[in-house]
Specification:
Blueprint lengths: L1 H33 L12 H21 L4 H26 L3 H25 L1 H6 L1 H21 L16
Helix pairs in contact: 1-2, 1-3, 3-4, 4-6
Length: 170
């Protein structure tokens, strides 16, 4: 039963990643490539392995909480986990699907707060589960800075339209 539960959490988390990639992948070669980006923007190939790793860590953390003794904190922790997972998916839709950079920035800040709250409640249920989410909040912190920088660099243009590329992007 423990492996079934772990497998279910992994599947749920990876489905969220897969759904998000349905908006992300088509935008990368065209719209996203043409956006002005800061010097600290990582190469595109890094995102898929980082997110896959984070989704597996998230699944393992949720599984540990699921397997912990039933308490009010456990239920609250799993509710928060579901909320942050929904916000995670929503960011992909807002940023890549809607191409709304400012709205995506506001949303990623909500996501960050939801992850922080999830970590805090997970810590009351299972300390290791909380620690397993630390790489996730670290990456979302970086992603928030990246989102802010991309929004700042592109806010004077309509992000849905092709942008003139700078010399460094050619």
């Amino acid at each position: 039963m423990r492996w079934v539960s772990l497998s279910a959490w992994i599947i749920v988390c990876l489905i969220v990643g897969t759904l998000g990639s349905r908006w992300t992948a088509p935008a990368i070669p065209g719209w996203y490539r043409r956006l002005r980006k800061p010097s600290f923007n990582p190469p595109n190939w890094i995102f898929a392995p980082v997110w896959t790793t984070l989704y597996v860590l998230m699944a393992f953390a949720a599984w540990r909480v699921t397997m912990s003794p039933a308490t009010p904190d456990r239920g609250w922790a799993l509710d928060l986990f579901g909320l942050q997972l929904a916000l995670n998916l929503a960011w992909s839709w807002i940023f890549f699907g809607r191409r709304a950079l400012g709205a995506a920035l506001a949303e990623v800040l909500l996501l960050w707060a939801a992850i922080a709250a999830t970590i805090a409640v997970f810590a009351r249920v299972d300390a290791l589960a909380a620690w397993l989410l630390v790489p996730y909040i670290a990456w979302v912190s970086f992603a928030s800075l990246l989102n802010a920088a991309i929004w700042r660099l592109n806010r004077q243009t309509d992000p849905a339209k092709p942008l003139a590329r700078t010399a460094t992007q050619r």
